[in-house]
Amino acid sequence: MAVSATDTGQKNIVQGGRAARWSLRTVALGYLTLLLVIPVALIFFKAFEDGFAVAWEAISTPEAQHALYLTVLMVLISIPINTVFGVACALVIVRQRFRGRALLNAAIDMPFAISPVVIGLSLVLLYGSRDGWFGQDLAAAGIEVIFTPVGMALATMFVSLPFVVREVIPVLQEIGDDQEQAASTLGAGPWQTFWRITLPSIRWGVTYGVVLATARALGEFGAVAVVSGRITGSTETLPLYLRRLFDTFNVAGAYAAAVVLALLALSVLVAMNLIQRRDKAILAGASVATEAGAVVPHIDVADDKETPR
Questions:
Q1: Strand ranges (E), the chain
Q2: Quick count: other Cβ atoms within 10 Å of Cβ 35?
Q3: pLDDT the model gives residue 299
Q4: How far apart are CA 88 and CA 110, in angstroms?
Q5: Which residues pair with 299 in a beta bridge?
Q6: Using an 8 Å Cβ cutoff, are 275 and 207 in contact?
Q7: How far apart are the first and last CA of the chain?
Q8: In the CATH scheme, what is the code of domain 51-272?
């Protein structure tokens, strides 16, 4: 008969006495404070150290507004495409068996392993208008990729590609395919099964992947710097604008631009938490209604009709 640590009077550091618990909390919170809280707080302090007017002037110029617009545009282009690709790729890797599956699974992690600068250089070699593999033909057709927002979008898509895939794959593995097979047995088609069974089950994996990909896309510097040419007012995103301000010794303006980037990332996190709370409230309400014996509508996957049960 197995004897637990509690029965023998021994406790690990998590279940130990007051001193052990407080030590663990102090180490965890102290690490987060030194690594995250203090640097972010200093950025906000430095941004407004010389007054709000100085910070506002740095982020209200036409160049700053265009940089902010271009940064948001890169996110709006790359994240939806990578979300659709990430969900499809995760389904292929988890639900199907084929030759090359392991190679595809490994290729997804390439943006994690390769430097963003190398990614930018590879795009130049492919799409450069002078000696790129595809760039010459595209230039002859009047399509420029490098030193345009098109190349910047490609670079942003590449660096943010793995996040949705890596968040959705563990969720798919955990839920299994029993419900999907049951829906198919009841007459549901592939699209019905995906929209009614699979997607609701993986929605939070998709959400977390989108948040991580958005944060990476907002702050991407290396790959975008190579393919954009860093042309002020044309191909300069907010991180590139921030670097230019810092290089020209406009420290207050650089910190103000950093604050804008931080606020954009925080807004994504706040939106995710609000959606999560709303989803939990809906689930809690449905659970209470079920326990009270209320009539819950049931959707027949065969004919899409709602019937009470």
A1: 297-300, 305-308
A2: 10
A3: 47
A4: 18
A5: 306
A6: yes
A7: 47
A8: 1.10.3720.10
- Give the integer Cα–Cα distance in Å for 136 and 134: 6
Length of the chain: 309
Q: Which two tokens mark 190?
A: 């592939």
**DSSP state, 145?**
-
Nearest CA to 85 out of 147, 6, 165, 148 is that of 165
DSSP per residue, 88-138: HHHHHHHH---TTHHHHHHHTTHHHHS-HHHHHHHHHHHH-TTT-TTHHHH
Rg (CA), the chain: 25
DSSP 249: T
Strands 305-308 and 297-300: antiparallel
Dihedral of alpha carbons 164, 165, 169, 170, sign: negative
pTM of the model: 0.80
Q: What is the pLDDT of residues 163-182, one digit of tens each?
A: 999 999 999 999 888 888 88
Q: Quick one: residue 274, left, alpha or beta (phi over 0 = left, psi -120 to 50 = alpha)?
A: alpha
Cα distance between residue 29 and residue 38, in whole Å: 12
**Burial (CB count within 10 angstroms: exposed 0-12, middle 13-18, buried 19+), residue 257:** buried
**28-66 pLDDT per residue, tens:** 999 999 998 899 899 889 888 888 888 888 888 999 999
pLDDT for position 309 = 44
189 Cβ contact partners less than 8 Å away, ≥ 6 residues apart: none
CA dihedral 86, 84, 129, 116 (to 10 degrees): -30
Q: pLDDT, tens digit, for every residue of 138-156?
A: 888 888 999 999 999 999 9
Distance CA 30, CA 79 (A): 34
Residues 93, 104: contact at Cβ < 8 Å? yes
Compute how many other C-beta atoms are within 10 angstroms of the C-beta atom of residue 61: 13
